[in-house]
Every structure is written in C-alpha cells, then in structure tokens.
Amino acid sequence: MPSRIDIYFPGVERMLLSPSYPGLAAAVASPEEMALYRERHGEIGAHHTLFTLGPGLGSFVVAGVMQWYEDQGGYDNVSVFGRFD
User: Fold this and answer.
1) Spatial contact of 61 and 67, defined as CB atoms under 8 Å apart
2) Dist. CA 37–CA 13, nearest whole Å
3) pLDDT tens for residues 9-67?
C-alpha cells in the first residue's frame, strides 16, 4: 500500500510553494542557500530556520521547525498533526 507523508511547519514566517511535488526533498538550507535567500528576501527571524523544498530556492519555508510523519492514510484522512480547518 502506498504511504503518505504529512509535513508540518509551525510558526511560518515566509514561504514559496508549488501546487504539487512529484518528489519532495525537504532539508535545512545550506550556507550557500542561506546567503542567496538573504540577498533576495532579507534576514530570517532569530527563532526561524530556512527549509528548502527543492534546488535553487524555487520552493522554501521559513518556520520555527519542520515535523513530518509517514503513514498509510489516504488523502482525505486526518493528519497525525490534527485538523487545520
């Protein structure tokens, strides 16, 4: 059975997202990506981290932390992180 991965970013300061991701590679930004982000968007808050969701800052989230959970749930099932409506 295919699995799903829920990703939760509490305390979002800024984000640039795509409507879908055929393969998602979320990571803490490298020093080079941090420098590029600062050039384009300015400084990041003291309690935030830049997470990249693809190469070249095409998708990113600036948030407090990133949490994820993988399960066998369907698209319409409630996330382990709860409801957001």
Assistant:
1) no
2) 13
3) 999 999 999 888 877 889 999 999 999 999 999 999 999 999 999 877 889 999 999 99
